[in-house]
Write a structure and sequence with these properties.
The protein has about 290 residues and is an alpha/beta fold. The protein has one domain: 3-Layer(aba) Sandwich (Rossmann fold), CATH 3.40.50.720. Helix content is about 40%, strand content about 15%. The strands form three sheets. It has an eight-stranded parallel β-sheet, with helices on both faces. Strands 7-9 form a two-stranded parallel ribbon. The protein has a two-stranded parallel sheet with strand order 8-11. The radius of gyration is 19 Å and the shape is globular.
């Protein structure tokens, strides 16, 4: 049996479905009892645990073959990343006490850096705490999620514009589908290894904002043009969306645009998922799925 945190999200859910499809038992770690029914219906065992409750997490992580562990996305953290620090401390305490045979951790591209990461600093903090554990650990560092492009569909459909925080518009970066990241997580959980692994995950090809616009144009059957959101408007835009502390998000985007947030030159391992951007965006453009 494998314990999966973040199972109600895209990556954790994909990992759990892949494990179940291959006949493995899954323990779904959820904090909301209302969300347990779906995974029970899929045949998973359910453990209720908040990610800041070390005792509940220890119980959820006990008696399993491995644990997939992640921290929830927080796009508006308090200064000092206090929420993240509380979560990773509880996770480390729980894993140390439960002592599962191995753990697979969802991190991020760029998390090898101690500075200049903005929001990804949360993953640097996470990795640093997980590195203190004695059992075999694997850090998954996926590229920019293709699903970020889902937020561009409404504007592309209505006005033919894709407003991009990534620039220059012809600058390509690795991107990956969350389903492919979940599949890698499931595969690594079933493997045996010693020590520490770092696995970078990308898709079949990199994409620039102009490429994303071209994909949307093809899917929507209308012209779509990418344009850069002016850097000096970012703070006001993010605050208008309800963010109290937009600086970490801005620093993260600056890191991608400068090339600072990128894969390592010599990674220990790198995996390319098969899913193209078209396959990720198509369900949201042709009416076959609800908008995310």
């Amino acid at each position: 049996m494998y314990a999966i945190t973040g199972i109600t999200g895209r990556v954790g859910g994909a990992a759990a479905r892949a494990l179940l499809a291959h006949g493995h038992d899954v323990r779904a770690v959820v904090r909301d009892r209302a969300k347990a029914a779906l995974w029970k219906a899929h045949g998973a065992e359910v453990a209720l645990a908040d990610l800041t409750n070390a005792a509940a997490l220890q119980a959820a992580f006990t008696g399993v073959e491995g644990v997939f562990v992640m921290i929830p996305a927080n796009f508006d953290p308090t200064p000092g990343y206090l929420e993240t620090r509380a979560i990773v401390t509880a996770l480390r305490q729980a894993l140390e006490a439960a002592a599962p045979p191995k753990i697979v951790c969802l991190s991020s591209v760029g998390a090898q850096h101690a500075a200049g990461l903005g929001l990804i600093t949360q993953l640097f903090i996470f990795e640093r705490e997980m590195r203190r554990l004695p059992m075999p650990r694997a850090f998954l560092r996926p590229a920019w999620f293709m699903e970020n492009g889902l937020s561009d569909i409404t504007s592309a459909r209505s006005s033919g514009m894709l407003w991009s925080y990534l620039s220059p518009l012809d600058y390509s970066i690795p991107m990956v589908a969350t389903a492919d990241v979940g599949a890698v997580a499931a595969d690594v959980l079933t493997q045996q290894w010693d020590g520490l692994r770092t696995i970078e995950i990308e898709g079949p090809r990199p994409y620039a904002p102009n490429d994303v616009a071209a994909v949307l144009a093809d899917l929507l059957q209308r012209p779509v043009r990418a344009a850069v959101v002016a850097r000096d408007t970012w703070a006001a835009r993010f605050r208008s969306q309800g963010q109290a502390n937009p600086t970490p998000r801005m620093r993260m985007l600056d890191g991608f645009n400068s090339g600072w947030i990128a894969f390592q030159d010599q990674p220990s391992e790198r995996v390319a998922g098969p899913t193209a951007l078209e396959a990720v965006l198509r369900p949201m453009t042709d009416g076959s799925a609800d908008a995310a």
